[in-house]
Q: What sequence folds into this?
């Protein structure tokens, strides 16, 4: 089954562009929203595989969203998108458990590669979890 | 230690008089160079991002534009310090560009403080967010360019929002837009009808009503009579990145008594089917929708038409096209009358090149008895007369050129001639111009056996498409338009725009490349042929055809080779998204370079149209100012301006800040052995390497070779000769080297001493005479070599930057030697970089010491031709 990628950013244009690229280049199911709470709800409702989030959003900072997601489901890799000049915050997000970060503007291939790695990580985590449950 | 520290230490003597001025200006010059380098890098990155492989947002466009503006602002300020404020014209130009860019990148404002209605006499581009693109452009040309336009007022976006909120329609509109589904046109039509009905029935808030009445009274006082009005929509995104051509309603000849119903009708048209489909196709649905309405005193036009300041098909260069007919404008743009066509030269003096006068049996005019329009028969002796006089055509051409220069892009301009014969401009919007060059004859991919169904017509959008014909004879035929069909119809009705997202191609009997439908076809990249005369007669619904709009042919069946060839050239849909469209609009004021004459005869502030032009101008003039200053200072201040005496055709001028030239050998001309500057000496070793050739058929100034021995520095201050020089500002440890050979620039900034922590080299190389791809290959060649030489390398577009720091002196001397050789080898190589594989060959050859590139690269073998299908 195609992986489900959820993307949250306060700029609808960026969401639109990202969705266009991912659906053009991959068979992922891509859900986008400007509302971090909605993204979190989707992670509960859908079998979400990766959450990609902007770092700075007016409703909820990316790092706060990351913390909430980790409480909810620690197996969903979290990729943070940052603007040039906010690397320190991205590093802080990594400390808090983000899977990776990507600095805007970024190439199409860059985000696709990062998602692939995140999906592999997700598989590993799910396998570990299944192993623990089986034991 | 920086060179300025060194410079200060060297000149311990009290800083007074000439030396103090020199030092101040030198600091300014250094800042100019730094800002120049930063700007070029920022621009190169912007160009790379615009190519279509990146994901970014508006914040990126804003922050990068602002960063470039700030750097260029510094460049202009520093140049004025260097030139004692002699470059104020450049500062004024910078301000005007800053304003234009800021308008493009400014975020939408809260409409709370915006008036509901504004007189057109107070509107300009600064009010873009309040009055929409069309009204903002019209106000700009009325109030800033003082070009004749109708009088009137604008009901702003704030007026629209007040109306929508007062009638509780806001949530309804948002829900409606969020649920839009193009797959079900019938449902969409019904929903659209309901929403439009709700808007038409809305109650006008008292505040809005009062303001409109007040402004109409003011208009009546200005004109001395109570005019009927033309109500023109101005969507929030219209006439910016998007044309919305013919999608919104325009109501002409509206008596003021009918104003409010007409206003509501125009607002409702924002949600008509065609406009909604367009919003979806352009990915604008999620954005805020608002509409302002321009309310202009009706011009009882005796003639009207459209001026294109460039050929939208890109087939003819240096011309403007005019379509004109009798009476009011709609007859021209909706294709109901075949207009007269005039072709004007663009190069002043504007002249009429060609004209095709048509039979124009009817005209549109305001109805005398009631509101609205009436179609009237044209008097027999007028039907075949040109709709415009030669004088009117020339005036129109002059307006067109002026507006194109002002807005920085080709324009589509609607005009009218009033009963006194005066030309008025009704609107001006960006014109999408096709890039491909026209081809004629049967394309190589088509076999002789293919049956040609149509041969001829006019290209409305280049390209090739194959699919089944869907013949449109009435509006109902649009409802079941199949995905991937070829639209075939009698006229170029803008109504067909609503199925363009499904159409693969389009063939039309009658119509012009300037019609609204043709504009939409180009926006959606739908290959289209118009004016074929016979399409609806020879083509039948369901019939499979291939449209080769580029060659103006329609073939029976699917010509697979042609379709596949065309698909390879199709750009990614990403570049049509709103952020890319915005980036390209902003970039038109930033990156294009108009100062391209290698002899720099065009180097004047008047020729600077973009920030890139300003940067190049300031860089060149900054160097000139510095050298002029050094020449003046050299007599008294221990600063020496000299030229290098060498048999190499190299016009090298040097400013020695101290310690760079052997004291006992200082003269106007010095031999290379007299150089004591460590970095220049090392660089010169590479430049003068016996295997490196600096001669050859390049625009290097061969006169410079002779002038070295025959003319003195002060005697050769003539403008054109100055730019053929290579410059070096040196001290014992420092080098700032700047060379411009033909079309490319190379600069080196280096500090080389025994203290390795102070040491660095920065090398930059940009430009060239060849095309973008070949220039890109040359900088990749340079980048590959620099990497092998241990530089940290960044290649962006046709700019390569190599950096190296904290190396010991001996190693940096070696690197500078290699850079000297590399610059010699890179000359003109862009011309020869025919394919990507050659880049590797040149890199290896250079690293192997084959500086003359003996043996030459082997061209990449072309794949053998496929045998014909049997």
A:
């Amino acid at each position: 089954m195609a992986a489900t990628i959820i993307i949250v950013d306060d700029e609808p244009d960026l969401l639109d562009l990202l969705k266009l690229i991912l659906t053009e280049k991959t068979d992922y199911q891509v859900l986008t929203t400007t509302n971090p709470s909605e993204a979190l709800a989707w992670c509960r409702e859908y079998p979400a595989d990766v959450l990609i989030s902007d770092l700075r959003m007016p409703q909820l900072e990316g790092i706060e969203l990351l913390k909430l997601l980790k409480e909810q489901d620690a197996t969903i890799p979290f990729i943070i998108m940052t603007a040039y000049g906010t690397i320190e915050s991205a590093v802080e997000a990594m400390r808090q458990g983000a899977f990776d970060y990507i600095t805007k503007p970024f190439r199409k291939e860059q985000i696709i590669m990062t998602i692939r790695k995140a999906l592999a990580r997700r598989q590993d985590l799910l396998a570990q979890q299944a192993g623990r449950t089986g034991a | 230690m920086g060179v300025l520290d060194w410079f200060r230490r060297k000149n311990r003597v009290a800083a007074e008089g000439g030396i103090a001025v020199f030092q101040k200006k030198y600091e300014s010059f250094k800042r100019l160079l730094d800002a120049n380098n930063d700007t070029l890098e920022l621009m190169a990155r912007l160009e790379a991002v615009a190519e279509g492989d990146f994901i970014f947002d508006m914040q990126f466009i804003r922050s990068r534009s602002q960063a470039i503006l700030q750097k260029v602002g510094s460049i202009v300020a520093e140049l004025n310090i260097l030139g004692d404020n002699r470059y104020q014209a450049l500062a004024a130009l910078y301000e005007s560009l800053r304003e234009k860019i800021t308008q493009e990148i400014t975020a939408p404002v809260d409409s709370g403080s915006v008036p509901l209605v504004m007189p057109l006499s107070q509107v300009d581009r600064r009010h873009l967010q309040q009055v929409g693109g069309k009204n903002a452009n019209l106000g700009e040309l009325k109030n800033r360019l003082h070009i004749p336009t109708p009088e009137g007022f604008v009901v702003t976006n704030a007026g629209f929002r007040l109306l929508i909120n007062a009638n509780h329609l806001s949530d309804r509109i948002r829900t409606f837009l969020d649920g839009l589904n193009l797959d079900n046109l019938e449902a969409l039509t019904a929903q659209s009808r309901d929403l439009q009905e709700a808007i038409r029935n809305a109650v006008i808030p008292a505040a809005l009503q009062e303001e409109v009445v007040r402004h109409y009274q003011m208009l009546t006082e200005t004109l001395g009579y109570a005019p009927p009005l033309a109500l023109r929509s101005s969507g929030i995104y219209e006439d910016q990145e998007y044309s919305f051509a013919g999608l919104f309603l325009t109501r002409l000849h509206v008596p003021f008594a009918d104003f409010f119903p007409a206003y509501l009708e125009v607002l409702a048209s924002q949600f008509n089917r065609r406009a909604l489909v367009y919003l979806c196709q352009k990915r604008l649905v999620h954005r805020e929708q608002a509409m302002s309405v321009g309310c202009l005193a009706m011009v009882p036009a005796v003639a009207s038409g459209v001026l294109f300041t460039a050929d939208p098909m890109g087939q003819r260069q240096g011309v403007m096209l005019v379509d004109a007919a009798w009476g009011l404008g709609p007859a021209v743009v909706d294709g109901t009358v075949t207009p007269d066509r005039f072709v004007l030269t663009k190069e002043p003096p504007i002249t009429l090149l060609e004209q095709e006068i048509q039979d124009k049996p009817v005209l549109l005019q305001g109805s005398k008895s009631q509101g609205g329009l009436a179609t009237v028969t044209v008097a027999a002796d007028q039907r075949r007369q040109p709709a415009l006089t030669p004088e009117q055509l020339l005036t129109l051409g002059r307006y067109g050129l002026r507006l194109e220069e002002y807005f920085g892009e080709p324009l589509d301009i609607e005009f009218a001639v009033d009963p006194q014969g005066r030309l008025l401009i009704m609107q001006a919007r960006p014109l999408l111009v096709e890039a491909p060059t026209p081809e004629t004859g049967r394309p190589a991919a088509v076999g002789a056996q293919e049956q040609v169904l149509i041969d001829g017509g006019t290209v409305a959008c280049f390209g090739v498409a194959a699919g089944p014909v869907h013949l449109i004879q009435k509006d109902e035929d649009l409802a079941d338009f199949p995905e991937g069909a070829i639209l075939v119809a009698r006229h170029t009705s803008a109504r067909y725009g609503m199925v363009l997202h499904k159409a693969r191609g389009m063939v039309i009997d009658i119509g012009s490349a300037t019609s609204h439908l043709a504009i939409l076809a180009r926006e959606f990249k739908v290959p289209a042929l118009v004016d074929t005369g016979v399409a609806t007669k020879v083509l039948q619904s369901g019939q499979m055809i291939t449209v080769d709009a580029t060659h103006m042919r329609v073939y029976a069946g699917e010509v697979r080779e042609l379709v596949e060839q065309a698909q390879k050239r199709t750009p990614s849909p990403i570049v049509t998204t709103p952020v890319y469209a915005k980036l390209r609009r902003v970039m038109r004021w930033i990156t294009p370079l108009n100062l391209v004459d290698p002899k720099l005869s065009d180097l004047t502030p008047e020729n600077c149209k973009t920030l890139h032009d300003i940067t190049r101008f300031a860089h060149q003039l900054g160097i000139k100012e510095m050298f002029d200053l050094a020449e003046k200072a050299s007599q008294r201040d221990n600063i020496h301006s000299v030229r290098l005496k060498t048999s190499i055709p190299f016009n090298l001028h040097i400013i020695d800040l101290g310690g760079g030239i052997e004291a006992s050998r200082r003269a106007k001309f010095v031999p290379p052995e007299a150089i004591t500057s460590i970095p220049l000496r090392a660089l010169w070793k590479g430049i003068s390497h016996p295997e490196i050739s600096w001669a050859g058929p390049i625009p290097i100034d061969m006169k410079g070779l002779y002038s070295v021995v025959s003319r003195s520095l002060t005697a050769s201050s003539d403008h054109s000769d100055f730019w053929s020089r290579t410059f070096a500002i040196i001290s014992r440890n420092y080098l700032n080297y700047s060379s411009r050979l033909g079309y490319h620039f190379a600069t080196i900034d280096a500090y080389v001493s025994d203290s390795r922590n102070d040491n660095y080299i920065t090398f930059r190389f940009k430009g060239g005479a060849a095309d973008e791809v070949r220039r890109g290959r040359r900088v990749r060649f340079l980048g590959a070599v620099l990497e092998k030489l241990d530089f940290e390398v960044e290649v962006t577009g046709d700019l390569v930057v190599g950096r190296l720091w904290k190396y010991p002196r001996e190693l940096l001397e070696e690197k500078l030697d290699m850079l000297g050789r590399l610059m010699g080898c890179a000359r003109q190589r862009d011309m020869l970089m025919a394919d990507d594989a050659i880049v590797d060959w040149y890199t290896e050859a250079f690293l192997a010491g084959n500086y003359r590139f003996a043996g030459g690269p082997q061209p990449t073998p072309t794949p053998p031709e496929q045998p014909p299908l049997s």
Q: What stands out?
A: Strands of chain A lie at 4-8, 29-33, 50-54, 78-83, 100-104, 106-107. The two ends of chain A are 27 Å apart (CA to CA). The longest helix of chain A spans residues 108-134.
